[in-house]
Amino acid sequence: MNTNPNIVIIGGGHNGLVAAGLLAKRGLSVTVLERRHKVGGASVTEHPWGPDYKVTALSYVMSLMPQQILKELDLPRHGYKIHPQHGYFSPLPDGRYLQLPADDQRRHEQISKFSKTDADAHARWNEWLGDLAATLGPLLATVPPKLGSKRPKDLLDQAKLAWRLRHVNQKKVGDITRLFTMSIADLVEEWFESDALQGVLAVSGVIGTWAGPRSAGTAYVMAHHQIGDLGDGEITGSWGFPEGGMGAVADALRSAAESFGAQVRTEASVSRILVRNERVAGVVLENGEELSADIVIATTHPKITFLDHLDKRELPDDLVAGIGRWKSRSGTVKVNLALDRLPDFTSKPGFDPEVHGGTIVLAPSLDTIEGAFQDALGGQPAETPFADICIPSVFDKTLAPEGHHVMSMFTQWVPHNYADAPHVTELDAYADRVIARVEELAPGFTNSILHRSVIGPYEMEHTYGLIGGNIFHGELSTNQMFHMRPFPGYADFTTPISGLYQGGSATHGGGGVTGIPALQVVKRIEHDQKHWRKGISFLR
């Protein structure tokens, strides 16, 4: 191996750009290849209605990016700015509303409107989650060991993990086991009695997943969205809206990477990863151009990496079969709107920065959410979809003309096989039902809509590379986490091909705009390079 390797990164999403910046900062020769005309992957800002409106097409909120990335790449200097999200607001069909502000006392008062018991329990709930996060959070930054391997090094890695968890007592082991195996419905029903609170809390257990609130394992999905302590002493779990939309995050990452010397190429679609003598040799673009490389980092969906970009004969049969079984279903639909005014909710009229500047949740009960999933499971778009709604233009005046706003509606579900065909007519009818739900709660809302775009699973897959429309590059189910992500024996960010690494959202720590896989793959390359530099690492 070249001791000063040439590195190619496939995919210009946030993970690819983070890895490029970190490696280029150390003086490495790095080239990022992005298939689309712009970087960002699912974290992009588009202009579907002309230059006056900036729309975050898919990913719509920022969280969980470790402070190490922000500091090392000096992202604020490159335009990275976050407007904090202001709590949750759930308007209800009966004319009431539940608001969950950040302030403990006011939140207690809000929940007490529905149940004094729930209000008291919610404080204990947050303590319980915080205690679990203190254990689970650092594991996001842990490279999964090769469980079951008898090789001395792998046994040592397993022992290190066990030692790291030595302080976890039996009760906490039980709590973690329940969290990984329970449904979010069973969990919140154990803690709370009011439909309104159960509905709001259940959304984070099913967001972006092909599973309803009564599906086993969805309790962990909720915890994944709540964990903020990544083991580096910095809390990163506060959600917020990037100024300029999510694409501004990608732009800041690109600017940082290029400032350190990385080359970022758009409209550079890879058709094949070159392998010679069981070692990566570079990539071939769709236009026939060949780029040699000592190291290739794939941040694409694992089915693209292993089943499209590589010859299956170059891979173990069990890996090919396993990636073929990799579940990447979704049923998510993103509805983006341009408005000439803010919605005025009957239950809480007038402008409220904690309503319009927070997250508006259409999920009045567990049964409503479960019913939406059961509709899709039965082959029909949800009759009553749930929605996670944000209006980032309330604070970010760069997104829309004065007095106008852009609204992001992250909704579920349609049948997961909608990834196979556009289903334009059905998606339009589905979007009409989502908008009608808001109209019932905020009369006049429909007439405020100037423009709309509806992005379903097919477009998510074919335009943005999200196979099945899954925003996590693979379901966050128990059988696809930790040492199983994306395949046993290769959850350490390596592949069977020497010099070919993984660094996308389908690896451990992925799911959300975190950059954790990028951090881990850089550390893995450092580890491997030490063997070629006689103990001298090119990474600090």
What can you see in these coordinates?
This protein is α/β, with parallel strands linked by helices. Among the domains are: 6-45 and 63-81 and 240-326 and 476-530, FAD/NAD(P)-binding domain (3-Layer(bba) Sandwich), CATH 3.50.50.60; 106-226, no CATH class. It is 36% helix and 16% strand. It contains 17 helices and 19 strands. It has helices at residues 14-25, 67-72, 104-112, 116-140, 152-164, 170-181, 184-191, 195-206, 218-226, 246-259, 302-308, 317-325, 353-356, 366-377, 424-441, 457-464, 516-530, and strands spanning 6-10, 29-33, 45-46, 55-56, 82-84, 88-91, 97-100, 240-242, 263-265, 270-276, 279-285, 290-292, 295-298, 332-339, 359-362, 386-390, 405-412, 449-455, 500-502. The strands form five sheets. Strands 7-6-15-16-17-14-18 form a seven-stranded mixed β-sheet, sandwiched between helices. α1 links the parallel β1 and β2. The model is unreliable at 228-237 and 535-540 (pLDDT under 50).
Descriptive keywords:
alpha/beta; 17 helices; globular; about 550 residues; 5-stranded parallel beta sheet; FAD/NAD(P)-binding domain; disordered C terminus; 7-stranded mixed beta sheet
